Structures are given as structure tokens and as C-alpha cells.
Amino acid sequence: MNGPLVVLVGPMGVGKSTVGLLLAERLGVGFRDTDEDIVAEQGRTVADIFVEDGESAFRALERQAVRTAVAGHTGVLALGGGAVLDAGTRELLAGHHVVYLSMDVEEAARRTGLNAARPLLAVNPRKQWRELMEARRHLYEEVARTVVATDDRTPEEVTQEVLNAL
Ligand code: S3P
């Protein structure tokens, strides 16, 4: 099937861009990120689109960006963390080698800079991460052909594991 060699999905902060760039370098292909495509096309930040137009408008723009990238890009493609929430976007991924970069809630809290040093800050973000992952985990698993756990691994190790799976 034509299209990207590999599509990376997973929650924000898991390292899709870092690993995506390393992977593209190792494979000698280009790297593309649908968030960046949307920002370039819209001339506004993702945060501004969310505030001004709402999440469902962003998801529709994201679906269009995924459609374009899946049709025209033959390298490594990274999607935004919430792209899998949209059924139309999930359909576009069928038949492609989708890799789910996963991390557990503790790792997510740590990587997003929230830790037990500030208990009030730490409690709610952990709960939010847990709820977010409960809502999304099965969707990441549904679209993925390969799952690579990133906890306790360097981006280079994660990249190698993705390469082994291709
Ligand atoms: C989102 C993740 C972001 C971006 C937007 C929404 C999400 O992408 O698409 O802020 O819903 O998880 P990254 O995963 O690249 O940060």
C-alpha cells in the first residue's frame, strides 16, 4: 500500500516527534507531523484553533490533514494525541503500519513535569491522565499494528524497537 512507511500515535508527551525524527533519519525518509501541517495551513496555533473554533472543528481539520498526509507522504508520519478520537480519522489509518507509543500514567505525569513535590498539582493531573488514557487506550490499540512501551526507555531505544517491528 502507498502512503507513510509508519504512522506514530500515542498520547501527548510520549515522544512521537522525537522518535519520529530519529526514525526518519535512520530510514533516510522525511518526517511529517499533522499538528504542524494544520498550523501551517491555518496560520494559527493548535491552542488558538481549540479556543476559537472548538475541539470538534479541530478534529475535522485534523481528519483532513491526516487524509492529505496518508495520501501524499511516504515517510514517517506523527499524529496528534487525540487524532484517534475521530472515527473518520481511524478509518483513514486502516491498512497502514500504525505504531502506538505507550506510556503509563506515572510516566506521563513525570514527563509533563508534575510530581509529588507539589501534592495538589500532582493529584489532579494524575487523575486527568488516568481518565484520558481510559478513554483513549482502546482506540490507540484498535488502530495499531505494533505497540511499543516507552517507559524507562530512551528515544534511541524506542526508535530501534520500532525499526525492529517494520
Ligand atoms: C491533543 C494533542 C496534541 C494536539 C492537540 C490535542 C490531544 O498533539 O493535537 O493539542 O487531544 O491529546 P501532541 O500529541 O502532538 O501533543
TrEMBL record:
| Cofactor details (free text) | Binds 1 Mg(2+) ion per subunit.
- The protein's predominant localisation is cytoplasm
Location comes to: Cytoplasm
Q: Which catalysed reactions does the entry list for this protein?
A: shikimate + ATP = 3-phosphoshikimate + ADP + H(+)
What family does the entry list?
Belongs to the shikimate kinase family.
UniProt KW Magnesium keyword: yes
Provide the organism lineage as a comma list.
Answer: Bacteria, Bacillati, Actinomycetota, Actinomycetes, Kitasatosporales
Binding annotation for ATP: 13-18, 118, 153
Residues that bind Mg(2+): 17
Q: Which organism is it from?
A: Streptomyces cinereospinus
Cross-referenced Gene3D superfamilies: P-loop containing nucleotide triphosphate hydrolases
E.C. number(s) listed in UniProt:
2.7.1.71
List the protein's name.
Shikimate kinase
The GO terms this record gives for MF are:
shikimate kinase activity
- Which pathway does it serve? Metabolic intermediate biosynthesis; chorismate biosynthesis; chorismate from D-erythrose 4-phosphate and phosphoenolpyruvate: step 5/7
Q: Which cofactor does it need?
A: Mg(2+)
Pfam families under this entry? SKI
